[in-house]
Amino acid sequence: MANITLCSFILLLCSLIVFADENLVIQRVLEELSELRSRVDEQDLELHQLKQVVKSQSAEIQLLKGERLADDVSDHPEFGINSANEIISSTKSKKSLGDTFRSATPTKRILQKNRRITPYSAAMHRIGLTAYRVSTDPVHPKETLIFNQVLANIGNRYNHYTGVFSADQDGLYVFYFGLECNDATIEAEIVNDDVAFGYTYCDGRSGFSNSAEMILKEVSTGSSVFVRIVSTSNQNNNVVGDKTIFSGFLLN
pTM higher than 0.85, yes or no? Predict the structure, then answer.
């Protein structure tokens, strides 16, 4: 009887050990599955990013092809381009781009090969900003207006802590600034390196009012542009509305 009891106890103990081993195995399998899922998710993300890169590069290649085609046709004014990107002469005969390019003189082919594609280079350096002023602080004369809510800052040339736009490229810029005022009159000017080149006046004595100004301005690299308060009839309260805006972009 004692032997039977001992055997039963041993069998029970073995069953518990096997059951425990199975649970451990299952737990390890689940952990490995979770790790595999994480790796698959990471690979899916990398694949998506690669697809985006390929898509972007394909678009750039198409743009380069189009500009190269336009350059070749400009060297041969007797030809035009149809919707299939074939070069067509005035006699309606079709000629491939390769044939046209090969028919050019060696000197012209070298010039075509080394020609700089300026439109594409310019498109790669975009500059633009749009920001609003959202604040309960009063404003005072000679104070730079801080547009702290940034909607766009392409090129990262606008500092929303100082309210100053800093140009890193010479060119013709378009600037726009608008005031919303209430219970006061406000005069403001837009300034380039401490020289005002635009002005607006907002009369809000009868309630909310708006005024704005848009200006073209040649700006040099390293110079700054900002909006400055000239005068206000109420320096003790916030009289500037949330629709007050500063915007600008590089035209060329």
Answer: no
